[in-house]
Design a protein that fits this description.
The structure is a homodimer of 241-residue chains. Chain A is of the alpha+beta class. The first copy, chain A, contains seven helices and twelve strands. Chain A folds into two domains: 11-145, Jelly Rolls; 155-235, Arc Repressor Mutant, subunit A. In chain A, a hairpin with a 2-residue loop joins β11 (215-218) and β12 (221-224). Residues 1-10 and 12-24 of chain A have low confidence and may be disordered. Chain A binds a DNA duplex (30 and 30 nucleotides) through residues 156-157, 187-189, 197-201, 203-204, 207, 219, 238, 241.
DNA sequence: CGAGTGGTTGAATTTCTTCAAGGCTCGTGG
DNA sequence: CCACGAGCCTTGAAGAAATTCAACCACTCG
């Protein structure tokens, strides 16, 4: 059922090789990353399209993203797929299955990346703040999901795309990247799947936002030309009545 | 901002008056209910349309539903609303704000109901299994949300309504109610909001499912005439291609 | 009994999807 | 080095599904 032929990946035996110590220019660390950075964690490098784990596989650890962009997705029995989120540095993969024996979703790298494997049970006992952070991460994932449910349920196609861009830039900004310029690591089809739109609709929305002078597109590079204007497209809503 | 004029409600001073001891015919209890039923909890009765809490209010406890049906909803700054779920006995209200000082959603009773206020911090220390259950509840809320994101993103209107009915009957069945007959405690507009459909669309979907002989509608009473047939409508999907 | 809430149905409209065709970019192999 | 193919992106035109608008009914509650 779950062929793991493409999950083979390079693992660093036990601990940190020097060049892996968090880069000196390191931007604001996530609380979780700050908590565990000193520990000798299993680190795992992944190339684009490699799976961190797949739904149904036995669950062994939580994965903290240290670099790269990942997507998580769920699949129905009859093959319908839905991307549940795009995940950046400092975020956790596998949270949703904390109480289960197997993973509940797929997690796959969108480009080269690195995850740290957190020995969850051990950390819970030895690091008091860990449980705290875990609970916070779970609760904020719920709020994040609800936020997107709200967006998808009440915004028209173009607004959803705008909301998507704004969300991404905000999160990248929080990681220390330029908040006005970004590289989409996912395809238009991925964006469409996440936003419950067809890829053509995403393309048209992007083209139109560019025509309005709000963004500038060049392949997967997107520059926000008018952040305020982009944000303003969200309020004028379909839910006018 | 948050007028609480309709949140006043009858509180039982400290502990259980005799008639409140869980009914003798009690069906399968939720794990959480079993864990705390012996404790002297603050119990709170609510009438239809009363709020358990509202977004922005200071958070004091978790609320365990002991009776009744509740809905939780989030609101955007510009007034768009989205119902994030309908909650039954044994489920927790306020989970999503566990790490915050204020509630993150509204929780309102759809008919008469009762919630038990869980002294979260205290339980965490004294009852070892409590943290475990809490984590499980958080994780399954995430999976539940993802399941609905998948459904809303990949199913057509009529299929969403069918999925909604099947979900409700399954959950009511797990509580010991008849799995074939139920009373919707929410309006068509509520169902539509939850499923990201207009209320007219919900009505048409229900009418059509009835015309197909799969269900029988009488006001808010709904009987599942053909559970298998209803479930079968889910697979033949829009995501055919 | 009258008003109001909630539910139902029809017809017109809109938005998004579907289908089709073509172009761009990058990596691979000749 | 160039050609070629695959994957990804873009645009147009036709079609379908759901929304919007409008009217009306049924039941309940004061």
């Amino acid at each position: 059922m779950f062929d793991t032929h493409d999950v083979v990946d390079s693992r660093q035996p036990t601990a940190s090789t020097p060049e892996f110590i968090p880069p000196a220019q390191s931007p604001p660390l996530s609380a979780m990353e700050a908590l565990v950075r000193a520990l000798p964690l299993q680190r795992r490098r992944l190339k684009a399209k490699q799976y961190v784990f797949r739904a149904g596989q036995p669950r062994h650890t939580l994965h903290l993203i240290h670099a790269g962009v990942f997507k998580t997705s769920v699949l129905s029995e009859d093959g319908r797929e839905k991307i549940t989120g795009f995940r950046l540095r400092g975020e956790l993969l596998g949270l949703d299955a904390l109480d289960m024996a197997t993973y509940a979703c797929d997690a796959v790298a969108l480009d080269v990346g690195e995850v740290w494997e957190l020995p969850c049970a051990h950390l819970r006992e030895t690091v008091p703040e860990f449980q705290e952070l875990l609970t916070a991460a779970l609760a904020s994932e719920i709020r994040r999901d609800w936020g997107w449910m709200l967006a998808l349920g009440t915004l028209a196609a173009e607004q959803r795309v705008a909301a998507f861009l704004l969300d991404l830039t905000a999160r990248l900004g929080a990681l220390g990247f330029s908040p006005l310029c970004m590289t989409l690591r996912m395809t238009r089809a991925d964006v469409g799947n996440f936003l419950s739109l067809q890829l053509e609709t995403v393309v048209r929305a992007l083209s139109h936002l560019q025509a309005l002078g709000l963004i500038r597109i060049e392949r997967r590079e997107i520059r926000i030309e008018d952040p305020a204007g982009l944000a303003a497209t969200l309020s004028a809503s379909r839910a006018c009545h």
